Protein: Peptide/nickel transport system permease protein
Amino acid sequence: MKIRANLLIGGILFTAVVVAGLLAPWLAHTDPVMDANLMYAEEPPGTEFWFGTDAQGRDIYSRVLYGARISLTVGILSQLINTVIGVALGLSAGYWGGWWDDIVNGLTNMMLAIPSLIFALAIMAILSPGLTSLLIALGLTNWSFTCRLARASALSLKSQGYVQAAKVLGYSDIRIMLTQLLPNMLGPIIVIGTLGMGGAVLAEAALSFLGLGIRPPFPSWGSMLSDARDQITTAPWISIFPGLAIFITVLGLNLLGDGLRDILDPQSRTRRA
Structure:
């Protein structure tokens, strides 16, 4: 029951955020950037402004909806980059071994020794703030966990009989890795990718909070929290709703990843039982 509950609740929360982001132009009450009216600055939540307004009189509800687009785009695309890099390096290192395995291992250990957020901050300090820079910074900093997982899976799978049979049939190394090894390690990769998306959403919010992410006035949950620091006591709703959006998104992704792990990893399911 717990497995199904995690998967169901996580799936519902994540789907709700995705739908909100996709349908933002139709669900939003106003334009999140252009419709600013100082006459309605710091209006509390009510029937006209469901989530209230910020210091510029912009509708927070509309900005939270459009902010979902940025957070999901960064989370999905950056984790996709991380997954491609990690799987390519880990799969090849585990299958070929030798000097290539030593190089990949050394590079992975170096990446694990550096906090990913610090590395992302260094990259963003070199690049100009923006969506492309965020994808590059977050897409190059979190692949080490996927690499370790792919390498360990390749080491255990390459001695299996079907892999040896593929070698006898004359399959190339690339074909064996793509058709024999990769399909058998997709489950754990999907799980770690789902969990990594939640981390990417948090990292994007942290970078935007520090002014190194999406540039204002475009809505980003992290930049909205940064703008709300001065009004946290006088107008707390300005920070509450972007914070809730981050919380719901990350919670949904973590529950979804936990449920997928229990389904795709029989050993984990047996231990919990």
Remarks:
- The chain has a mean pLDDT of 85.
